Amino acid sequence: MNTEKASLRQEIRRCKQAYTPAQLREMSHPIIERLLSHPAVSKAHTIAFYHSLPDEVYTHDAIERLRTAGKQILLPRVTGEGTMTFLPYDGTLEKGAFGIMEGTPTATTTLCTAEVFVVPGIAFDREGHRLGRGGGYYDRFFQSISHHPAPVTIGLCFPFQLFDTIPHEDYDLKVDQVITSSNFALAN
Length: 188
What we know:
Blueprint: H1 3-17, H2 21-36, H3 39-43, E1 46-48, H4 60-68, E2 72-80, E3 83-88, E4 93-95, E5 101-103, E6 116-119, E7 123-125, E8 130-131, H5 137-144, E9 152-156, E10 162-163, E11 177-179, E12 184-186
Parallel strand pairs: 1-2, 1-6, 6-9, 7-10, 9-11
Antiparallel strand pairs: 2-3, 4-5, 7-8, 11-12
């Protein structure tokens, strides 16, 4: 394991512990408002999201707002060891891998593509590099797909999760943009 990445994950974990879940949820509001007003999100018909954990930027309300506005929402579902897919969200969730709430597959579920992927991260840098939780699920997923045109990838984070640079490998997912409460950090 990369010790720089592990050290940064621990540092961010300590930063998050300085806040209550209610404070983190409150801190999420301006981030979500920036996301919802993003031109790519406004134009998209289908948006892939993540159903946030208590220590992440709170996405539950945004998912419902976009669904109510007629957008198709996709949520990740772990499909095997180290693999995941995105399935249409119909309002029903079930606890999946690692205690993360996932969409439920149905007999009529078909895999979908999205114009926008909103992805979680432990940390991001101003170039769009992303540090995940260490499982590599998003990295492997994006290596396995070939959408044309390529989807817009957007990372959401609290200001203390945004750095000038973070440790990264060639295979790590790099997002197109990072949104935090104080600014849009445009990736190259």
